[in-house]
Amino acid sequence: MRFAILGISHETNTFSIVPATYEEFEKRIIERGQEIVERFATSEYTIAGYLQAADELGFEAVPLMYARTGPIGTITKDAYDRLSTEMLQMLRDQGPWDGVLIANHGAAVSEEFPDMDAEFTRAVREIVGPGVPVGITLDMHANISKETVANTDVCVVWRTCPHLDTRLRGRKCAELIYMAAKGEIRPVQFIEMPPMLVNIVKQFTGQEPMKSLVDDCFEANEHTGILDTSIAEGYPYADVEEMGMSWIAIADGDEEHARETAQWMAARAWEKRAELNKPVPGIEEALRMAEERYVGPKPEGVENFLPDDGSALGESEQSEHSHLGPIVLMDVGDNIGGGSSADSTHILKVAQEMGIQRYLQSLYDPEAVQACVVAGVGAEIQLDVGGKTDDMHGEPIRIVGTVQSIDEGSYEETRPTHGGGRFYDDGRRVRFDTVDGMTLLLTSVRSGNTAREQMYSIGIQPEDYRVVIAKGVSSPRPAYQPIAAEIILANSPGVTTADLDTFSYENRRVPLYPFEEPEYSPE
After folding, report:
1. Per-residue pLDDT tens for 253-265?
2. Which domains does the chain have, with CATH numbers?
């Protein structure tokens, strides 16, 4: 049996002014054939789960082409046309197929197709025909449409945020497609899309209210005749009709059972819609909390326990050192994993004004990096950093300090990471220590803080700082929860702010909670 593997993975922030061009994909990942195996086989990403299933179940996995870039703005028509044309031609030319496995994100928007994932799956189905089982594994932040579900036989969504089960869920998708190809099951799907969303600051699945909703998902999966269940948190920064939460149930030949199961999960969540949209502290309050709650550095080599499923630390699992270590502030408005600029200065400005020392954060600024390269290691210089992408993320901040080190920015992380990544590249980067007690990691590539090795690899020990800023909401948790005394979400302005009222939506569903107060009851 031969299964094709392909995908275009993008989380599109339609409010971002940075377009997802073909060149942006080239900067990150466009890989074909064996290149895909070399990159992902030893990772924890979805494709690793596909390859694992092939080894264990005995089908032939044929990687065709895979493309991904970081979350930024809308995919250009040129980029989608070039990527999809090449991939789909491979699918045509290298068939016939016994199954297809797609690795998309699920929140992609192109200039031509607002629901790019639906268009891509439609095209795949058109090529292979109705008799070949097609599976897709999606990010938990997918905005999933009924069309995407209709175009596939199996739609599996990651169940953890931060995303630590990506390989596991990929393997599950592949196994179901394998069983369908052998005629052992007849998967039928149903998606329920109540008129609600969950704010980005409440999407951590290790704490309530999301924890119990994921528990419901696991419970429903145990029902006789149910092959799989998924909960998608959705992605609120994509102005599309399908934006919001959704639930999918896959039953073995029983569409009514799938419908009832998906609607049961969704109805349980509807009762928690207010909890799913509670606010978090602003910048000044969060920094003040961090200063007040810092106790001291964590002893070398001591880490907090981080469960593999990304759940919260229980009291019984915390060590005697759990309240030692840096206070980590999540910069909600500059959530790089959500499509932000990576150069927001909103928190840095307030921290500077408050005189906070032993402060650490990264900042995307190729101009500042180049100035440091010209000055050289050991030089004391003055820089205006950050705030250069747009007018949403603050103004450049004046800093004075020393260029401590410069490197080319590639590193490998073997610890658990959000999304299962292993190989990273910040581009040329600089460690810069300011005269007022701050350390900035200046990068020439928009980089998130999802791997602690990002800091270690340039000689920064985050454990030694009082306050660490992580540009994200949930994605930095696997990296920083093991060393943090506490994690505090700080709502800040920006293209990923938790204040959704600041955005002008033109295409979302109306009514949609919390913007409106709709009525909802499963059909």
Report:
1. 999 999 999 999 9
2. 2-277 (3.40.50.2300), 283-497 (no CATH)
